Amino acid sequence: QVQLVESGGGLVQAGGSLRLSCAASGSIFAFGAMAWYRQAPGKQRELVASITRGGLTKYADFVKGRFTISRDNGKNTVYLQMNSLKPEDTAVYYCNANMMTVPTREYWGQGTQVTVSS
After folding, report:
1. I need a surface site. Which of 23, 60, 64, 114 has the fewest CB within 10 A?
2. Is 10 within 8 Å of 18 (Cβ atoms)?
3. What is the pLDDT confidence band of residue 70, given thresholds at 50, 70 and 90?
4. Helices (H), 48-98
5. Do 71 and 98 form a contact (C-beta atoms < 8 A)?
6. Contact yes or no for 78/69 (Cβ under 8 A)
7. Burial level of 15, CB count in 10 A (0-12/13-18/19+)?
8. Is 66 helix (H, G, I), strand (E, B) or coil?
9. What is the pLDDT of residues 93-103, one digit of tens each?
């Protein structure tokens, strides 16, 4: 069993910052790509940022220059530093990780609420 546990969400004013963490536990082999998604009320889940095991990153256009994804392979943890937050960033943020097994196994966290007030 593998579990992903997110933390760091909360309520923040527009322009503020939050740092999300996602720690994996259980029978872990090794994770390849890890990512953060978000889902706002009434909207589909969307990709926010992803990072390969080697550290290559990709960002959605709506967070470029404001959010930074990083990871610690030794701790099986992925982070999302969110700066200059906007009310439209309000959503439940989910951690996603793909284990390097054959076939690849995909895992999701339970989500953490981020609310940005104007």
Report:
1. 64
2. yes
3. very high
4. none
5. no
6. yes
7. exposed
8. coil
9. 999 999 988 89
